[in-house]
Amino acid sequence: MPETLTDTLLRVEGLKLHYRTRNGVVRAVDDVSFDIRRNEAVVVLGESGCGKSSLAKALLRIPPRNTQECSGKVWLNGTDIMGMNEEKFRKEVRWSEISMVMQAAMNALNPVVRVGEQVAEPLCLHRGWSSERALKHAAGIFSLVGIPNDFMRRYPFELSGGMRQRAVLAMALVTEPSLVILDEPTSALDVLTQANIMNVLKRIKREMGTSFILITHDVSTSSEIADRVALMYAGQLVEFSNADDFFRNPAHPYSRLLMASVPRLRQVIRPEHIPGQPPSMLSVPEGCRFADRCPSRFERCVKNPDLLKINGDREVRCWLYEKGLKS
Amino acid sequence: MTGDNEIVVSVRDLHTWFELRRWGIVRVGNVRAVDGISFDLKRGESVAFVGESGCGKSTLARTLLGLHIPTSGKVFFEGINMQELDRKGLLDYRARVGFVQQDPYGALPPFMDVRRILREPLIIHGVGDRKEQESRIRESMEDVRLSPPEEFLHKFPHMLSGGQQQRVVIARALMLKPSMIIADEPVSMLDASVRVEILNLLRNIQKTRQLTLAFITHDLSTVRYFAERVFVMYAGRIVEKSTVDNLLEHPAHPYTRALLDALPDPDPENAARMRELPSGEPPSLIDPPSGCRFHPRCPHAIKGLCEVDIPPDFEPGEGHTAACWLHRQ
Ligand SMILES: Nc1ncnc2c1ncn2[C@@H]1O[C@H](COP(=O)(O)OP(=O)(O)OP(=O)(O)O)[C@@H](O)[C@H]1O
Ligand SMILES: Nc1ncnc2c1ncn2[C@@H]1O[C@H](COP(=O)(O)OP(=O)(O)OP(=O)(O)O)[C@@H](O)[C@H]1O
Ligand SMILES: [Mg+2]
Ligand SMILES: [Mg+2]
User: Is B244 part of a structural domain of the chain?
Assistant: First the structure.
């Protein structure tokens, strides 16, 4: 097999998560395909409501109750995990292979259970370990994420926000999964704690070889760990590029405008917002979903482009990059 | 008092402590969340409060709103001592001061849809008939870019994305057209573009209506464009006060410098290296360090001084104060 194939940890094809609402169907994740390599951090960026958390829920197969459709193919190490029955998925994949830190999870810790026990719990639950053995193992993870071991006996309210975020991170890592999905792990934290958590993630990536999907809208912080960047717009991927190219030379017109909206501390460039709004997720347009707001719109845009490959390893959903138009 | 320098809010030596009890009875100490804070806010200015998690920003905001009773010290709003307000006075005050609460999800009642959430303040303060209420609701939804309103009016909080929830909280704070807004991390869950848009919006309302805006934020890279002054808090105190430009160009307090150093710009080089950060954790507010509270983490601490004496506000420049012994004249 070519190296790129053996290197792939997760392969996602045509993933969909649609919700049923009073006003119609919300197509929160609408035909998303991508892959993640071993020991790679893929950052999922995109504006609020574009479907980032929904993407994570679909991958972990935890769709909410009003789900209309949750479908698509996902392979983990070559094994189809979407076709698996729930029992097997729960035993062999969720937590043990793919774990997740939910958006705002640090506020969802059980207030009456000591954090050490909460962090060790997945081991008892998914591996049937005794709590003694699980706690001992958890202690190692606590050091890794930078929580002093005596904090294991504390209750969540006795920890600062940063420590609680580390605790939920520890909980996601305790089973040593090959992929950890982090949904906005730092957006509620101050800059020092944020930088600290990013340092912890870098260390874990190096020492444990873990792959990450980091969901965030914080472009600057995402650059602390990103190997590749997936940018979502209205339920779809619009660009998937390596981090160097994405941050220095964004390709999709939306990517370029997004980068121009990011404030910089070390340069005085007034950040500009992107005029207009994303389409309603209830009735997305036939054509390119960004066309309404796009300064480079032209006739072709009445049809929605596929993801086009450019420069070898980049993918862009934009007619500008159709053969010959632009390189 | 009129014009540019009219003082709207005046805070003097404010302390808000929480009593800490074990098993609900035994007193074991106080959490000194706000511990000796003084400042003035002028009409029509925008001031950003920054500082690490747990340093007392929300407690300060809630004390200003009358949601916590100060342990000592005073808060004046337009010259009136807040502690002397009766119930009606307090209700009026709350109508004039909008509050954008941190943690939008917790701020929204789960059993109300968006329309009801936004109508609530109008009902409480008896504003308008149903028709006027409805048009106000739609107007402020458009203001925060929750449009078309029809798509959101019937949604309950759990059906909204994090950023959409946050915008509902902002819309609610604008419903009564307040003269001051206290916003506790109003845009923390929003992406860069919407963040800039909402901050522009708050900024425009603030300028056209001469609104005073006090906002808590972690994002020092936006303050340049959306605030006149910045107050840096550490462990229950304000350690540096300055105009924005001055603070960004010449940060005086070592803690402020650490905050600035920790903030990344979008640069792929970042992934290749660990970021240098001050060692240690923010201090306990129950038993804060002696002297300067930052001294255990400070790379410049002067032995025999910083751990002994509390630094007063020195003035490294005009309109710029720093509570740090490095700046003693
Ligand atoms: N249970 C649900 N029922 C109906 N609509 C939903 C539900 N959950 C989410 N949505 C809608 O689906 C879209 C995508 O939501 P999602 O939470 O995935 O966004 P997001 O990209 O994570 O946003 P944020 O950055 O604000 O967290 C939004 O328009 C949201 O309102
Ligand atoms: N009602 C309360 N009772 C006891 N302690 C409290 C209470 N509210 C806050 N505290 C404590 O007071 C300190 C300051 O909390 P506060 O919420 O004001 O911090 P903050 O600066 O807003 O932090 P963050 O950035 O995390 O929101 C913390 O140590 C907190 O645990
Ligand atoms: Mg989300
Ligand atoms: Mg707070």
Answer: no
Q: pTM for the complete prediction?
A: 0.86
At residue B39, the 3 state secondary structure works out as strand
Nearest CA to ligand 2 atom 24: B53
In a domain, B312, yes or no: yes
For chain B, the straight-line distance linking the first and the last C-alpha, in angstroms and rounded, comes to 34
Cis ω for the linkage preceding B148 (within 30 of 0): yes
> Does position A325 have pLDDT exceeding 60, yes or no?
no
Nearest to B277 among A189, A196, A258 (CB): A196
Question: Is 90 exceeded by the pLDDT of residue B57?
Answer: yes
For A64-111, the pLDDT digits (tens) are 999 999 999 999 999 999 999 999 999 899 989 999 998 878 888 899
The two three-digit tokens of residue A291, written as one number:
């066309």
Nearest chain B residue to A102 by CA: give it.
B162
For residue B26, the domain's CATH number is 3.40.50.300
pLDDT of residue A41: 97
pLDDT, tens only, A168-191: 999 999 999 999 999 998 877 888
Both B23 and B135 in a single domain? yes
- CA–CA gap between residue A162 and residue A234 (Å, rounded): 31
Do B162 and A103 lie within an 8 Å CB cutoff? Answer: yes
Is position B165 within any domain?
Answer: yes
Q: Clarify whether residues B316 and B205 are in a common domain.
A: no
- Comparing CA positions, the residue from B1, B13, B129 lying closest to residue B71 is B13
Ordered by start, the domain boundaries in chain A are: 5-97+177-324
Tell me the best of B59, B65, B67 to mutate to test the pocket of ligand 2, counting ligand atoms within 8 Å of each CB and taking the most.
B59
The pLDDT assigned to A172 comes to 93
Closest CA to A220 of B218, B161, B249: B218
Number of domains in chain B: 2
Residue B1 has pLDDT above 80, yes or no: no
Mean pLDDT (whole number) for A286-301:
95
The parent domain of residue B320 ranges over 253-262+285-329
N residues, chain B: 329
pLDDT of B2 over the 60 cut: no
The alpha carbon of residue A158 and the mean position of all alpha carbons in its chain are separated, in whole angstroms, by 29
Mutate to test the pocket of ligand 2, among B18, B35, B49 (most ligand atoms within 8 A of CB): B18
Quick one: pLDDT at residue A3?
Answer: 45
Superfamily name and number for A5-97+177-324: P-loop containing nucleotide triphosphate hydrolases (3.40.50.300)
Q: Which chain A residues have a beta carbon less than 8 Å from that of B163? A: 47-49, 217
